[in-house]
Automatic annotation (TrEMBL):
This is VanZ family protein. Keywords: Membrane, Transmembrane, Transmembrane helix. Pfam families: VanZ (PF04892). Residues 19-120 form the VanZ-like domain. The chain crosses the membrane at residues 42-59, 71-93.
């Protein structure tokens, strides 16, 4: 049951890893989408989606009742740790680097994902 309800989260985690750990010179130029700090908006968005998916998946699964009861806290903590780890690993990826501002954007994204989850549940 765990994989069934968390498959989208796991796919999203893999997608984040692929996108953020691809060497920087291999990332296509998206000039018409560019505006200052666009990368921070992207970080915020991908981590908001991550927390949203993870909260939903952890709440629905029944394999781990302790995590089910603490889905919000677990989702935010796991996502924050994942965001920091991704940034640290980028130190070793060509044309990538650790950026504290990305960690902040990831954290704001985690909070946004939590808020969106609450909003969707109330609708």
């Amino acid at each position: 049951m765990f994989i069934k309800y968390n498959a989208l989260t796991l796919i999203w985690v893999l997608l984040i890893a692929i996108l953020t750990l691809t060497p920087g010179n291999s990332v296509p130029d998206v000039g018409f989408w560019y505006f200052p700090h666009m990368d921070k908006v992207v970080h915020l968005g991908i981590f908001a989606v991550l927390v949203f998916l993870m909260i939903r998946g952890l709440r629905k699964q029944s394999s781990f009742p302790g995590i089910q009861k603490r889905a919000i806290g677990a989702s935010i903590l796991i996502s924050l740790i994942y965001g920091v780890l991704i940034e640290l690993i980028q130190i070793f990826v060509p044309f990538r680097s650790f950026e504290f501002e990305d960690v902040i954007a990831n954290a704001v994204g985690c909070g946004t994902g939590y808020l969106v989850t609450n909003l969707v549940q109330k609708i």
